[in-house]
Amino acid sequence: MTIQQLRYVLMICEAGSMNKAAELLYVAQPSLTSAVKELEKELGITLFNRSGRGVTPTNDGLEFIHYAKEIVSQYDNLLDKYGKNGNLKKKFGISTQHYSFAVKSFVEMVKHFGTDEYEFAIRETRTRDIIDDVFTGKSEIGILYLNDFNRKPLEKLFKSNGLVFTPLTECNAYVYLWKGHPLAGREKIRFEDLASYPCLSFEQGDKGSFYYAEEILSTSEYPKMIKATDRATMLNLMIGLNGYTLCSGVISEELNGSDYLAVPFEADDNSVGSNMVIGYIAKKNMILSNIAELYINELDNYLRSYQKKHSK
To answer: pTM above the 0.85 mark?
Structure first.
């Protein structure tokens, strides 16, 4: 079994046709077919069902393709980490909850590459999509938080998908609102202070569990609730409707602007989950690429410097 054979199998699965895969791989169709048959003979299984309409993976093939994707991804990461060919296009992707500090760290990471060729991606998306993106290899790492409320169900989900959570920082809850908000001058804000204002929340989709909520204390009773799908809309609603959201308090003014602030949230004694741990998920036993390590370093430095600056 060779890496080349694995790449052949993955391309055939994606193309759905031997002829199309051969074109994309720039190899002769008979050579591609022969390589797959040799692999099937070595494995003792049939990878694809062949018909006039094309090819589809068998049940054995689907399982094999799952592992093949991981092996090829690991191999590519090894090349990225130890390879000597400086002309290789650098590829990297992350998926994250709607954190401006995650975007700011991404910006600083990209600056390191100057004129190098690269293909990077950052996806601000739903919590479940973050987990799926890392599991499927669409993103190398995912940025999200855990607290006492969501930790057990999310860690169970991580384990079933072969993912590991690594903490970066721990923080208390803050109320995020615009500087013209009637509560902006408070030293601390309690739940009863917020009753007259709409709580803003990122939508998690039709199948969204409340364990996926990006906002802490998601099970509390909010008299007024508005859901949004992106940070820009959320910020506009803060100004237009005096809305607020509960967050980590780690904000990038450079990206979000200086019209917003975070006020410490004073939780009730019986509140569960008012403390949060921000970190990243990655595949278990996976060697992170140099780019991923650089991004995590930027993220860690930003979080440390932010907390040091605002703890004074």
So the answer is: no
